[in-house]
Amino acid sequence: MNDTYKRAKLVExxxxxxxxxxxxxxxxxxSSYAKDIIGADRCSMFIYNPQNAELWTTLADGVERIxxxxxxxxxxxxxxxxxxxxxxxxxxxxVFLVDIDEMTGYRTHNIIxxxxxxxxxxxxxxxxxxxxxxxxxxxxxxYMKFFSRNLSDFIDLINLYxx
Length: 163
Prior knowledge:
This protein is of the alpha+beta class. It has a single domain (about 40-160), classed as Beta-Lactamase, CATH 3.30.450. It has 5 helices and 6 strands; from the N terminus they run ααβββαβαββα. It has helices at about 5-15, 25-40, 75-80, 100-105, 140-160; strands spanning about 40-50, 55-60, 65-70, 85, 110-115, 125-130. Strands 3-2-1-6-5-4 form a 6-stranded antiparallel sheet, sandwiched between helices. A hairpin with a 5-residue loop joins β5 and β6 (about 125-130). α1 packs antiparallel against α2 (about 25-40). The longest helix is centred in the last third of the chain and has 25 residues, at about 140-160. The mean pLDDT is about 90.
């Protein structure tokens, strides 16, 4: 996929997300565009619950809600470091939660994550993409950061709109 196509898709995404007035309306759009532009198979968005020290999926392609301890897995590492992560061989990474693959029946090969921040710059969750043919790279990281910033902005706008 070339840069011209990706830029056109990003403009299209920006125009469409403006008309979404709730998380249930906007999340599938974000997932669809992120997967399309980056070339991933699945997308998940984990929300951080500091009271329970958990991360849970508000969006997870192909599975029901997933709940994990906030300090576990690659998503948990993203939460603690507040930095994106690329792992192209998840089973060689001791942090990877094999249990999730076993529970869902889905085989993860590679993963890219990006932290989600609120308008106070506090981490509120993690955006995750799974399984890109050939693995994820630094170009994908650039787009992942774009989507995580837009998702954070969208969540803040929805909170203002609903509040």
